[in-house]
Amino acid sequence: MDTSLSAALSLGFVLGLRHALDADHIAAVSALVSQHRSVVRSCLLGTFWGAGHTAALLVAACAVIAFKLTISAAVERGLETAVACLLVLLGGHVLLKALGSRGRHHPAHSHDGHHHRHRHSHAAVQDTEDHLHVLRLGGRPFVVGALHGMAGSAALMLLVLTTIASPLAGLLYVVVFGVGATVGMFLLSGLIGIPFALTARRSETARRAIQIFAGAASLSIGCWLMWELSSL
Question: How far apart are CA 82 and CA 76, in angstroms?
Answer without folding.
Answer: 10
